[in-house]
Amino acid sequence: MITTSTPRWQEQFERVQRYQLRIAELAKGRPFDRPAAWFRDDIFTFFVECHSFKDWLVNDSAFLSSKRTKEKDTLVTKHIEQSDVLQVCADIANGKKHYTLTPCRKHADRLGWTDGKPQLYCWIEVSTFDNREEPLVLPPLLYTSDVIGRFKKETGRDMTEDDFETRCYQREQSNLQEADRLRIRWREKQIVEFDHEVQLQMVADVRHKTQVEDRERTMEFEAGGDIGVSALALECIAAWEMFLRENGESQR
Q1: At a CB cut-off of 8 Å and minimum separation 6, what does 15 contact?
Q2: pLDDT at 59 (0 to 100)
Q3: Do residues 157 and 210 lie in contact, with contact meaning Cβ atoms separated by under 8 Å?
Q4: DSSP 3-state assignment of 236?
Q5: Residue 129: CA atoms inside 13 Å, Cβ hemisphere, count?
Q6: Is 240 among the domain residues?
């Protein structure tokens, strides 16, 4: 019979930390040896696993063994509600798992953002490690007057918030596919011999879903500040570490 002294909640926390390291690696640039969408998945998975750490703490009898499950749930929930970064993490995780998020948490004002669910926006850059080729930079769709004007010209109507979100998703999928095509093209042209000679850098920001206001028949998107995902992931880890210390628990 195999036994382990490592509590299950700690296994989950270590898993969260590994995904945080993947995000940090992506931000610096790493070998482009898998389809681009796989790396994008790592970013979302961090937030899902990080938020689900709450359930591991609540349901693992090894964590705060003197307390009942309901007491632990109250304690953990209170900590999340007092942490801006863990609330953002929760919104991203729940929005991803359930497609949409209604209502969102009330952290937006404290962070200087407009109300609404947070969204992830990715900047992608593909290059060779030895700089033999011009890097391909693939930015996300930004809400500019040009974007709004093109939409109205194409559709004959004003752009709504949902329209913009759909266009953002379409741009992201197109960028991921274009990155994959370039990697394959460089291999076919023998610019590189192996996939690991190609570098992928993926930097993501978190921004709250923009609000749309009708001002003199012009749709204007109001947005607050962004938070870099790499920094946000580190702050989420730190927030959970603080909670563990405050409750007399630490990684073994």
Answers
A1: 49
A2: 95
A3: no
A4: helix
A5: 14
A6: yes
Q: Is residue 2 part of a domain?
A: no
3-state SS record for 183-199? HHHHHHCCCCCCHHHEE
User: Could you give the CA distance from residue 156 to residue 71 in angstroms, rounded to a whole number?
Assistant: 56
Q: What is the pTM of this model?
A: 0.82
Contacts of 147 (CB under 8 A, 6+ apart): 141, 159, 164, 167
Please give the C-alpha separations between residue 30 and each of 66, 133, 143, 215, in angstroms, as whole numbers.
45, 16, 29, 44
* Angle between helical axes of 8-28 and 36-59 (0-180°, round to 10): 150
End-to-end C-alpha distance for the chain, whole angstroms: 22
**Could you tell me which of 124, 128, 122, 123 has the C-alpha nearest to residue 183?**
128
User: Is 251 inside a domain boundary?
Assistant: no
- pLDDT score, position 117: 61
Would you state the pLDDT for residue 213? 38
Tell me if 63 sits within 8 A of 9, measured CB to CB: yes
Q: What is the pLDDT of residue 252?
A: 52
Residues of the chain under the 70 pLDDT cut: 1-4, 96-117, 207-227, 250-252
Strand partners, 222: 211
Q: Where are the beta strands (DSSP E) in 116-197?
A: 118-128, 136-138
Domain count, the chain: 1
State which residues form the domain around 237: 8-246
Residue 219 lies in a domain: yes
